Amino acid sequence: MARALRIELPGGLYHIMSRGNAKAPIFIDDRDRIKFIDILAKTVLDHRWVCHAYCLMGNHYHLLVETPDANLSDGMHLLNGMYTQAFNHRHLRTGHVYEGRFRSNLVEKGSYLLELSRYIVLNPVRAGLTARPEEYRWSSYHATCGTVHRPGFLHTDWILEQFGNARTPAVNAYVRFVNDALSSAGLTDENLQPIIGSESFVEKMTSHLQEYSPEKDRAHPTKASGKIELKELFGMEQLNKRERNWRVYKAFAEYRYTRAEIAEATGLHFSSIARIIAQANANFERPDPRVI
Predict the structure, then answer these.
(1) How far is Cα 274 from Cα 269, in angstroms, rounded to an integer?
(2) What's the order of all strands across the beta sheet hosting 195-196?
(3) Are the beta carbons of 19 and 63 closer than 8 angstroms?
(4) Considering the entire predicted model, what is its pTM?
(5) Per-residue pLDDT tens over the stretch 14-32
(6) Using alpha carbons only, how large is the chain's radius of gyration in Å?
(7) By three-state DSSP, how is residue 16 classified?
């Protein structure tokens, strides 16, 4: 089955959730949580993300991040990949830590970012772990309130600025805003659609998604006879980025595979495949000396 498409945009804002394989715990103790936060900090720094909120639960986590460079999938590959290695090494395990791909909701900035920010820090309350958000250690709530040191990867300014320029009144208003959802329905899991925002935003992003739909690949010429199987192109050895990109282009241009098929074989996002192919004629250099 083809993977669901993601919209990756410069400046895109995303609510991200990743769950343990078969809903198993991904955090056994606080050492695991500290390690995850260290890797998250590296990911945010390396990929120039803006992280507005986070919450680490027992068998999943939530993030609210912006991606100035349209590199969500690349960053998540680093985050989940590095944590899987660390978790398995520490607990003497092998295999998958996470259940399939991470889930991401594209979010319109503004009131929707605010709504998601409190939804995330209220996860422990909804799960029955605590009665109030301040009783839970492993979320961004305390850092946003200023009751603990703010980690360098966490950006709290935008959220607090929505409640005024003076910090103390803004923090107090933020606390009230979060607590208001304790006695009202607020955002729920059922409200989390792939695109979250105003009607015009959802319509615009849906149209953008359709521009990269695999349906467009149906107009691609019939696949060449005698073509090399994708597993031979991508599954037999470790490839550097340059070699991999050349094989992506060759699979599309010469062997007539669709972008969706190449995305499935490589594990890259569909938009990344489209970008590689679009850039190939302009600035792609064929690897030397290997010819495939």
Answers:
(1) 9
(2) 50-56, 60-67, 12-19, 103-107, 195-196
(3) no
(4) 0.71
(5) 999 999 999 999 999 999 9
(6) 21
(7) strand
